[in-house]
Amino acid sequence: MRLVRGLAVFLGAFLLFQVQPILAKAILPWFGGAPAVWTTCIVFFQSLLVLGYAYGHLSIQRLSPRAQGATQLVFVVAALFTLPIAPDASAVSSASDSPVLGILSVLARCVALPYFVLAASTPLLQAWSSARSKNSSTYRLYALSNAGSMLGLVAYPFAIEPWLTTRMQEQVWSVSFAVFALTTAILVIELWRAAPLVLEATATSAGGASAVARSPAPLPRERLLWLALPACAAALLLAVTNQMCQEVAVVPLLWVLPLALYLLSFVLCFESDRWYSRSWCLPVLIVTLAVMSQAAAMGARVSIAFAVPVYSLGLFACCMFCHGELAARRPPTQHLTTFYLSIAVGGALGGAFVSLLAPVLFRGYDELYVGLFACGAFAIAFVWKRPTERKLGARMWHPALPALIAVVVLIGAVFVMRMLTRTQPASRELRNFYGILRVQDLPAPSGVGDVRYLTHGGTRHGQQFQDPARRALPTTYYGRASGVGILLDELATAAPLRIGIVGLGAGVLATYGRPGDVYRFYEINPLVIDIARREFTFLADSAATVEVVEGDARLALSREEDERFDVLVLDAFSSDAIPVHLLTAEAFELYERHLAPNGVIAFHVSTRYLDLGPVVAGLATRTVRRTWEIVSAPDEALGTLDARWILVDADASLFDRPRLRAAGHELDLGAKRSLLWTDDYSNLFQVLK
Question: What architecture does CATH give domain 1-206?
Answer without folding.
Answer: Up-down Bundle (1.20)
